[in-house]
Amino acid sequence: MDRTDKKILRCLKENSRQTASRISGTIHLSVSAVIERIRKLERTGLIQKYTVVLNEKQLGNTLTVFVSLRLSHAKYHEAFEREILAYEDVCECHAIAGDMDYLLKIVTSSTSSLELIHQDLRRMPGVCGLKTLYVLSTVKHEYTVLPHEE
């Protein structure tokens, strides 16, 4: 990946629906070269998918929390990871190092729906600790971190 690829990625990060023609005008490269570079970035897997970012509050999801979770034994990790995939309100799940095993980002509509998720989490085999942090406001939220220009 070179500087031109990074410029294209920055354009796509800002708006992945922009045309190759618009990107071409922004970075001063021919449209066909932009198209070929984007295809290469897709083929190599650097661009994994294109998606939409929804306004959670307009969807009624006004509560965001981070839950750190500990399992009592490593034998429970695989089953936990399979089971957590079914929860639509859990938008991120990270295996972490430290005194907890996982960090979950949960976006939901109310404290009562969060309570149900908490109950489910506590019932999962091996779960022995939960700590919940409530998000008051979001100062910065990026979806991708691109390498710095050199």
Secondary structural class: alpha+beta
What gross morphology would you assign?
Answer: elongated
Portion of residues in beta strands equals 15-25%
Strand runs, count: 4
Side-by-side strand order of the widest sheet: 2-3-1-4
Q: Average pLDDT value?
A: 94
Oligomer: single chain
What is the gyration radius calculated from CA atoms?
20 Å
Count of alpha/pi helices: 5
Low-confidence stretches: none
Distance N to C terminus: 12 Å
The helical percent reads 25-40%
Order of helices and strands: HHHEHEEHE
The major pleated sheet works out as: 4 strands, antiparallel
Can you describe what's shown?
This protein is of the alpha+beta class. The chain is 36% helix and 20% strand. The chain is built from five helices and four strands, in the order H-H-H-E-H-E-E-H-E.
Compile the SSE list and pairings.
Blueprint: H1 3-14, H2 20-27, H3 31-43, E1 63-71, H4 77-84, E2 90-95, E3 102-108, H5 111-123, E4 127-134
